[in-house]
Amino acid sequence: MQFLKILFWCLIAFIAAVFTFGNWKWVTIQLFGNLVAEVNLPFLLLVTFLVGFVPTLIYQRAMRWRLRQRLNNAERALADLRAAPPVVAPATEAHVPAAGVASS
Length: 104
Prior knowledge:
This protein is mainly α. Helices cover 62% and strands 10% of the residues.
C-alpha cells in the first residue's frame, strides 16, 4: 500500500512538472490603482489553489480537533460511569392497609 501511495504522489509530481513546463507563460495582472504585476501562469494557479485550499484545511483541522476533544470527553465520562459502583436505592417498606379497614 505504501508503494501505491508513493507511486501516486510521483505521478502527481510528474503531471505538475509537465503542466508547468508546457504553460510557462507570463501573465499580466492589473492590481488596484495603476499597479501591474507580471507572474508566470503556474505560480498564479498555485497561489489561487492555495488561497482556496488553506482556509478549508484549517477549518477541517479545527473541526476534527474539536470533535476529537468531544469524543475524548464522552469516552472519559463513560469510563467514569462504568468504574463507579452502581447506586442501589434503599428498600422502603410499602404500607399495605389491612384487609378489613377502610381508609378515609
